[in-house]
Specification:
This protein is mainly alpha-helical. The chain folds into two domains: 78 residues, no CATH class; 47 residues. The protein contains seven helices and three strands. Strand 1, helix 2 and strand 2 form a beta-alpha-beta unit. The longest helix has 17 residues. It is globular and about 50 Å long. 18% of the residues are buried.
Length: 156
């Protein structure tokens, strides 16, 4: 889904709270400069794609979504260079990088989606996912590519 506008009638706070509770990908593609409140939603989303030259405009944005994504120190460092940031410095591109295993990325995406069970449940889910990834053929290809100093060739 491409998010191009906030629903009418929602305040910024209501929009961010709803986005924080949403269990799917909030933003998958954008171009140009993404400004508030959409830039805040981009930081709460799981992944995004963007063309060269796209920017995240933080001039009027709340900083908590950025801090939640990259941490206070990194957010401060990024914003020291200006309020228009490169998306690649902030957002994940899950599934857009041919050098990454698509199966592993799908698993990462599922782990990033909030679920019940708290910290213990998340840790148990991560342990199961780790065991699964270690058994994937992509792991063997990744290791072989690293040893042979070549890009991996995953089956997309």
């Amino acid at each position: 889904m491409q998010l191009v506008a906030a629903p009418l009638g929602l305040t910024r706070l209501d929009l961010l709270l709803a986005a924080n509770r949403f269990d799917g990908a909030l933003l998958t593609s954008f171009s140009g400069a993404l400004a508030t409140p959409l830039v805040e939603l981009a930081c709460l989303g799981l992944g995004a794609t963007w063309p060269d030259g796209a920017r995240l405009d933080f001039r009027r944005a709340l900083l908590s979504p950025l801090v939640a994504r990259v941490g206070r120190g990194r957010a401060t460092g990024l914003l020291a260079s200006g309020a228009l940031l490169e998306p690649g410095d902030v957002l994940l591109r899950l599934g857009a990088d041919p050098a990454r295993s698509p199966r592993a990325l799908a698993l990462v995406r599922s782990l990033l989606i909030p679920s019940g069970g708290g910290a213990r449940g998340a840790l148990a889910k991560e342990r199961v996912a780790f065991a699964h990834v270690m058994a994937l053929p992509d792991r063997l290809e990744g290791v072989a590519a690293f040893r042979e100093r070549r890009p991996p060739r995953f089956d997309w």
